[in-house]
Amino acid sequence: MSEHERTILAFDEAGNEYFIDMFVSVRDLSDLQHAGATGSGLPSFRTREGHAVTHLGGGEFAVTVPGEEQSLTVRTQDSDFV
Predict the structure, then answer these.
(1) What confidence tier does 3 reach under pLDDT thresholds 50, 70, 90?
(2) What angle do CA 16, 55, 17 make, to 5 degrees?
(3) Dihedral of CA 75/47/41/33: which sign?
């Protein structure tokens, strides 16, 4: 099950803004002795429009738009990624 973790605001070179939603896979690990325990997987990213996003490292992301040959690089100033 994936849960919405946060939203990141990023910009391309032309100044266009992109809202990137970050999702984290959450698994129920609870049993009778550890009720409510959960575990988190690696985050996944996609734009509000549903386009695939790859975190390139630091504050850079690659947005893949169907029909386009190359992905678009966008950058964020979000302190958790810079």
Answers:
(1) confident
(2) 10
(3) positive
Tokens 């810079």 belong to 82
Question: Which residues, 6+ apart, have CB-to-CB distance to 7 below 8 Å?
Answer: 19, 20, 21, 22
Mind listing the pLDDT tens digit for each residue in 29-72? 556 555 554 556 678 999 999 999 999 999 999 999 888 889 99
Question: In 3D, which of 35, 42, 79, 44 has the Cα closest to residue 59?
Answer: 79
Neighbours of 40 (CB within 10 A): 11
Q: Report d(CA 12, CA 5) in Å as an integer.
A: 23
Domain boundaries, the chain: 2-76
